[in-house]
Amino acid sequence: MNTETHMEFKPAPFKDRMTVYIGALVVIIVSWLYILGMGWHMNTLPFVNNPTAMNMDMNMNMDMDKKPMDMDMDKKPMNMDMDKKPMNMDMDKKPMNMDMDKKPMDMDMDKKPMDMDMGMNTKMTLVDKVLSWMPPSQGSWMLKDFTLLFIMWSVMMIAMMTPSILPMLLLFTTLNSRNKENGKVVNSTMTLLSGYLFSWVLFSLVITFPQYAMHKSGLLNPMMEPTHAYLGAVMLCLAGIYQFTPFKDACLTVCQSPLSFLMNNWKDGKLGTFIVGYKHGFYCIGCCWALMMTLFALGVMNIMWVMILTLFVLFEKLAYKRPILFRQVTGVFFIGWGILLVV
């Protein structure tokens, strides 16, 4: 790390740097729009309430409450008719006519909610269906559910981890411009970013299966929140303990030393650049996987915690001066937080 601080390079041309900034910014904006869209549909955005989501919950509760009421209303005319048998036939016909008149009215009343529901379903676009997806509360999972869960994790990891790779992208661009001046092969910075994000996509595929197991065992509800405090305590304590391990220290050192990593792993060509990015992403997964597990403690779609983790990962990689102190303080914090959940 000392060698990096003493080595100075001529900055890359402004055009090349702006290309990196714009490319990374597009990836960040698109991925965060997806995450915020899911948070809006699930009503998990901080300081914001979605009235549509709240009305849907109220309508579902009202529909459940109406069923016993409708059954009681249907029984009353039957009891009245049974009691009126000894009475005059003319008197009997009136309630019958009234019942006949009521039937179309009741049918019309019943049709209105159905028509409204059909209209709402037809108006939903594919984007709305994807953003409003929630894990099934009952029954077996379909391939669609696994796919949407995998997409959710992939986009979330891209949104959270792209900002932290930006310093390395700029350094790679600087080295690229230096190679161009020396007549060497120039590699695309976006290819490096693609390899880096691909490693997190694979991580998303792996973490989909334990989340499925948690849903099936009842540890997570359809809102992807823990149903038991012990699950949150275990995840937070795990993240805290991992901060003290040598594996965390080794992976974080690589993430904090992009120049040394590029010098030792440089490969020419598109495939070589992709592999370099993928390999660096592998070290970042080794550094941050336990932090991502805390999403199971506070809610996978807890947007506030997703934002905090994004900033935490960024600051942890930039904590060059006192990295050990930073890890120790945060490790103690997570362990203490986990213990407080079950005390």
Q: Can you give a write-up of this model?
A:
The protein is 79% helix and 0% strand. It is mainly α. The protein folds into two domains: 2-49 and 134-342, no CATH class; 51-131. α6 (143-181) runs parallel beside α13. It starts with a helix and ends with a helix.
Question: What order do the helices and strands come in, and which of them pair?
Answer:
Layout: H1 2-6, H2 14-42, H3 51-83, H4 89-123, H5 126-131, H6 143-181, H7 189-216, H8 229-242, H9 246-255, H10 258-265, H11 269-293, H12 295-298, H13 303-318, H14 323-342
Helix pairs in contact: 2-6, 6-7, 6-13, 7-11, 8-14, 9-11
The proportion of residues in beta strands is under 5%
Major sheet details: none
Query: Which sequence of SSEs, written as H and E, runs from N to C?
Result: HHHHHHHHHHHHHH
The general outline is: globular
Fraction in helix: over 70%
In short:
By secondary structure, this protein is an all-alpha fold. 79% of the residues lie in helices and 0% in strands.
List keywords for this structure.
mainly alpha; 0% strand; 14 helices; 343 residues
